[in-house]
Amino acid sequence: MDISFLIIFILGILFLVIKYYTPKIKGYIGERRVSETLKRLNNKEYIVLNNIELKIKGSISQIDHIIVSDYGIFVIETKNYKGWILGYEKDRYWYQVIYKYRRKFYNPVLQNQGHIYALKHVLKNYKYLRYYSIIVFTKRATLKTKTYTDVVYTNKLVKTIKKYDSAYINERTKNEIVATILHARINNRTEDKRIIANSNLSRNISCPNCGGNLIKRNGKYGFFWGCDNFPKCEYTRNIK
User: Is the dihedral of CA 236, 220, 190, 126 positive or negative?
Assistant: First the structure.
């Protein structure tokens, strides 16, 4: 094989790999920054869930961050773009502008509305919940947007969340909501035990099959006890 052809072939593969993975890496970095920022919230008032995937009516909704709080449900979409960000509330597309470079991307406000729709479907038994949509950009961007929805920089996120300060969800209901979301998620569950421990979801009731904790979950026929080692352990028990 001609060595020059081999070099061109390898460079082509590297270009495709970089083109495919770079946006994902940038997105992951942005989500990690927001996750670290959200750790500043009081975990007695706010329970933070990161990277939740829900499958609703055949479509998968990947939600960057959900906060179940005394004050309502916060649904956060994170963007790690640089340059000017231009857009209005109801535009189908927004624009990223860097000098003469200009590209469009789907309006994150509309994107987050889809996430909230999916979450409302999962939490359909809690019809009184208030949902707050927040779009977060890192400081790499310069926001030139006009919206009613909160579109903020990472360093303004906690302040934005705390401006909603009318408490109406009690501790028990908040924990039930978290358990319902964790039960509905379809992606990696490695953080579930930490979330359960930090949010007082763990119970003094042990699973007879594996010794894990039984937590209250919501299913098709109402609430039940389920093992926190699900899906490895599928033990359930009716609530008496």
Answer: negative
Pairing between strand 72-79 and 131-137? parallel
| 23: preceding bond cis by omega (within 30 degrees) | no
CA separation for the pair 32, 25 (Å, rounded): 11
The identity of residue 54, as a single letter, is: L
Q: Could you tell me which residues are beta bridge partners of residue 217?
A: 224
Beta bridge partners of 141: 83
Q: Could you identify the residue written with the tokens 């209901």?
A: 173
> From start to end of the chain, where are the E strands?
46-56, 59-69, 72-79, 83-88, 93-98, 101-106, 131-137, 141-146, 150-153, 214-219, 222-227, 236-238
- Answer yes or no: is pLDDT of 141 > 90: yes
Q: Hunting for tokens 């779009």 — which residue is that?
A: 135
Q: How many residues does the chain have?
A: 240
Task: State the pLDDT at residue 18.
Answer: 47
Contact between 109 and 151 (Cβ < 8 Å): yes
Give the CA distances from residue 18 to residues 11, 58, 101, 103, in Å, rounded to whole numbers and listed in that order.
10, 30, 19, 18
The Cα–Cα gap between 202 and 159 comes to 30
Q: What pTM was estimated for this model as a whole?
A: 0.72
Q: Across residues 134-155, what is the average pLDDT? A: 95
Q: Closest Cα partner for 215 from 206, 158, 136?
A: 206
State the sign of the Cα–Cα–Cα–Cα dihedral 135, 29, 180, 59. Answer: positive
